[in-house]
């Protein structure tokens, strides 16, 4: 196991799974600009690491993430200085924002283990991940409009695609709270569990992915799904998918996948999640 610690997040890597933990439990793991920067750095370091097959994100203590830290007042969060910090970090054009925050463009699957309360950005950031597990009684909410601001983290694009337009309008326009069980009913989370079991369930799921699935095939599958959430040309989707089918079939891991199945053993993958696809999935690739 390898471990690294920032001031506001913890990183542990074991068995191909990186667990990144928001670590401001005395503040319900609420975001400040320090945690924002450290979290993004940790995420992209794990993405670059070939030994990391899956990333699990969770929170220390009883909360997942209590949203943006508003204790210093609105000026600290939304004032000119904060705006300048944001623009210097993310830039203002869409490509640079995607480079920094576009977790959907990662080759590595990202799983949220929502072990407790998640509100505001603490909830929107999970919609940029691939799969969410949640505590049954967790208090969840996209409460932006109740603070006088617009929802963030591209959730106005993402949430309708996850739960449908009507439910997304309900949750985003009302800013109401809902439970982990509700999140499963809405299709926002895969399953709900007692709070003290959520991380274990997510990590077990992640370990199975790391052990049983080929990294290049997973990366391509994730890329195709996210690409065609944006582009609705079915013929183009079929054509690109077919190219990647033939590409994956020519990789060494395709032989290993068949042989391990025939020999009834755990596969030993040698491929890379960063393998070059035969055609760019994202324009910037």
Q: What features would you describe in this structure?
A:
This protein has 285 residues and is an alpha/beta fold. The chain has two domains: 2-210, 2-enoyl-CoA Hydratase, Chain A, domain 1 (Alpha-Beta Complex), CATH 3.90.226; 213-285, Lyase 2-enoyl-coa Hydratase, Chain  A, domain 2 (Orthogonal Bundle), CATH 1.10.12. It has helices at 33-48, 74-78, 80-90, 94-101, 121-124, 155-163, 165-174, 180-186, 198-212, 215-230, 234-249, 252-262; strands at residues 2-5, 9-14, 17-22, 54-59, 63-65, 110-114, 117-119, 131-135, 139-141, 177-179, 191-193. β1 and β2 form a beta hairpin.
Proportion of β residues?
15-25%
- Order of strands, main sheet, comes to 1-2-3-4-6-8-11
* Low-pLDDT sequence parts: 92-97
Any idea what the shape is? globular
**Relevant CATH superfamily of the largest domain:** 2-enoyl-CoA Hydratase, Chain A, domain 1
The radius of gyration over CA amounts to 19 Å
Q: Within the CATH hierarchy, at the fold level, what is the topology of the largest domain?
A: 2-enoyl-CoA Hydratase, Chain A, domain 1
What is the residue-mean pLDDT, rounded to a whole number?
A: 91
| Fraction of helical residues | 40-55%
Question: Could you describe the largest sheet, including whether it forms a barrel?
Answer: 7 strands, mixed
Based on the structure given, which CATH architecture of the largest domain is correct?
Alpha-Beta Complex
Number of helices: 12
């Amino acid at each position: 196991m390898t471990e690294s610690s920032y001031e506001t997040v913890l990183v542990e890597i074991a068995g191909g799974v990186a667990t990144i933990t928001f670590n401001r439990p005395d503040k319900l793991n609420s975001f400040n600009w320090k945690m924002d920067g450290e979290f993004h750095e940790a995420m992209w370091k794990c993405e670059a690491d070939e030994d990391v097959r899956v990333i699990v994100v969770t929170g220390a203590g009883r909360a997942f993430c209590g949203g943006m830290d508003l204790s210093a007042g609105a000026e600290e969060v939304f004032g000119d200085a904060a705006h300048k910090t944001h623009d210097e970090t993310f830039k203002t054009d869409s490509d640079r924002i995607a480079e920094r925050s576009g977790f959907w463009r990662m080759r590595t699957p990202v799983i949220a283990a929502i072990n407790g309360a998640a509100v505001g950005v603490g909830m929107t950031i999970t919609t940029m991940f691939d799969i969410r597990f949640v505590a049954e009684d967790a208090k969840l909410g996209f409460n932006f409009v109740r603070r006088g601001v617009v929802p963030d983290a591209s959730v106005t694009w993402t949430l309708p695609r996850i739960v449908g337009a009507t439910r997304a309008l309900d949750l985003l326009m009302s800013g109401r709270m809902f439970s982990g069980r509700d999140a499963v009913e809405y299709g926002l989370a895969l399953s709900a569990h007692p709070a003290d079991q959520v991380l274990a369930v997510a990590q077990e799921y992640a370990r199975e992915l790391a052990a049983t699935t080929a990294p290049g095939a997973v990366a391509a599958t994730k890329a195709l799904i996210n690409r065609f959430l944006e582009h609705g040309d079915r013929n183009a989707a079929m054509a690109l998918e077919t190219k990647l089918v033939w590409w994956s079939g020519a990789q060494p891991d395709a032989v290993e996948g068949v042989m391990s199945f025939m020999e009834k053993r755990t596969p030993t993958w040698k491929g890379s999640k960063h393998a070059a696809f035969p055609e760019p999935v994202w324009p910037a690739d």
